[in-house]
Specification:
The protein is of the alpha/beta class. It has helices at about 15-35, 50-60, 110-120, and strands spanning about 5, 10-15, 40-45, 65-70, 75, 80, 95-105, 125-135, 145-150, 155, 175. The longest helix has 18 residues, at about 15-35. The chain is globular, with a radius of gyration of 16 Å. The two termini are about 20 Å apart. Bound molecules: inosinic acid and magnesium ion. The site of inosinic acid has 17 residues, from strand 7 and helix 3.
């Protein structure tokens, strides 16, 4: 099946699961190489990054820690641009090398907000790993250090991404069909 319906919208297959897994493995290999000497603290942004986090961390072979934060900014298929509070940022961050794990960097609003908050705790370094980036939607100066795929500015679901609560469990990534 190359199309699915979620709520009122149709989606077509965009990135198949095998391609996602292969790319996640490549990103893990890069991180394993870069963090041989220091234990990184992964900060995973819920809900969207849960599958990316799980699959990536299964391929991380260096010692590491993982923590989860939550902040919601999204309703429907349009970013509201409003970022709420960060819940769960209680790990010892001072002098640590931090890797933020995101499902997607869209406007960059969430990432900028999170970077600012984490910086207050004086880490030695902050990097961003994101499975997806929409370069043409970026409104903030955000650098993604470990990137899975650059994608066009169309609404996506699957592999953690939802459309009004549905679709996070899908193994593939789907793109909204044009009407
Ligand atoms: P940003 O703050 O605009 O960069 O948006 C970040 C968050 O919006 C992501 O972590 C996602 O949860 C959500 N998001 C952005 N684009 C999409 C999409 O195409 N589908 C579903 N969620 C999205
Ligand atoms: Mg997210």
């Amino acid at each position: 099946m190359n199309t699915i319906t979620i709520h009122d919208k149709q989606f077509s297959l965009f990135i198949p699961s095998e391609k996602i897994q292969q790319r996640v493995e490549e990103l893990a290999a890069q991180i394993n190489f870069d963090y041989k000497d220091e234990i990184p603290l992964f900060i995973s942004v819920l809900n969207g990054a849960f599958l990316f986090t799980a699959d990536l961390l299964k391929k991380i072979t260096v010692d590491c820690q993982v923590s989860f934060v939550k902040l919601t900014s999204y309703q429907g298929t349009q970013s509201s641009g409003v970022v709420k509070n960060i819940i769960g940022l209680n790990e010892e961050i001072a002098n640590r090398r931090i890797i933020i794990l995101e499902d997607i960097v869209d406007s960059g609003n969430t990432a900028v907000h999170l970077l600012k908050e984490i910086e207050k705790h004086h880490p030695s370094e902050i990097k961003i790993a994101s499975l997806l980036l929409k370069p043409t939607a970026l409104k903030y100066d955000v650098k993604v250090d470990y990137l899975g795929f650059e994608v066009p500015d169309n609404f996506l679901v699957g592999y953690g991404l939802d459309y009004n609560g549905l679709g996070r469990n899908l193994n593939d990534i789907w793109t909204i069909s044009m009407e």
